[in-house]
Each structure stands twice: as C-alpha cells, then as structure tokens.
Amino acid sequence: MNIGEVAKRSGVSAKTIRYYEAIGLLRAPRRTPSGYRQYVESDIQILHFVDKARSLGFRLEDLGKLLALWEDKRRKSSEVKALARQHIEDIERKLFELQTMRSALSDLAVRCHGDDRPECPILDELAQPS
C-alpha cells in the first residue's frame, strides 16, 4: 500500500504519517526500487492505535511507551495503568489551571463596563506586572 491509501484507510494525513516515521512511532516502511514507501496492514493498526491515544490527549513521549507495551505480549498491565493514571493526573492539573483562568477572566469581565468609556479593568489587569 502506498502512503495515500494508508492515509485514507487510517484517517491520518500523509504528512503526519511521515512525521510519525521520523520520530520513530511508526517503523520505516519498505521502499520500492523507485523509492516509494510500501506499507502493510499492521501499519494501519498502529496508526489507528496512535490516533486513538492522541484523541485521549496522550503526549508523544507516552505514545512510544504505549506502543511498546501494546506490542509486548508479556507486558504487565500495571505499567499501562500507571501511564494512564499519570495522564489522568496531568489532565486534572490542566483542568484546575483552566478553571482558575476562567474564574479570573470572568471576574474581570464582570468588572468591565463594556460601554463607550475607555476604562477597562481587563486591560488594566493585563498591563500589571506579574
């Protein structure tokens, strides 16, 4: 299969497929004598796996670990669970940061008159040194 067909079947763009190859998430495929990439069915499975993990927000660094665990039939599920739990902690930390930002911005928006006057607490706050 060529890269166009793999992109269509996997839902992952050709550019992203080449990127995943460059960073080692996808093994370099065989090449035809003229240099074209030739993929196999397992490459599509890997791309589906990576795409699904990305949709759950896993970082690229974790994808390599997850792929290695997926391919290792003697893996310990405790290792997979530890990666998932760490990712959940990262998500919770990001949620807290987003809620804090939303609260601060909501407070500023309430204090802003939003009329024809030039005074604006939002801009005043942004102009303050951290």
Name the descriptors.
130 residues, Multidrug-efflux Transporter Regulator, Chain: A, Domain 2, 2 domains, two-stranded antiparallel sheet, 6 helices, 3% strand
- SS element count, helices: 6
Report the β-strand fraction as a percent range.
under 5%
Q: Can you tell me the overall shape?
A: elongated
| Major sheet strand order | 1-2
Rg computed from alpha carbons, rounded to a whole number of angstroms: 23 Å
CATH topology of the largest domain: Multidrug-efflux Transporter Regulator, Chain: A, Domain 2
Q: Helix- and strand-based class?
A: mainly alpha
Taking all residues together, what is the mean pLDDT?
A: 95
The description of the largest β-sheet is: 2 strands, antiparallel
Helix-strand topology string = HHEEHHHH
Distance between the termini: 54 Å
Overall structural domain count:
2
CATH class of the largest domain: Mainly Alpha
Helical percent range? Answer: 55-70%
Count of DSSP strands: 2
Quickly give the CATH architecture of the largest domain: Orthogonal Bundle
Low-confidence stretches: none
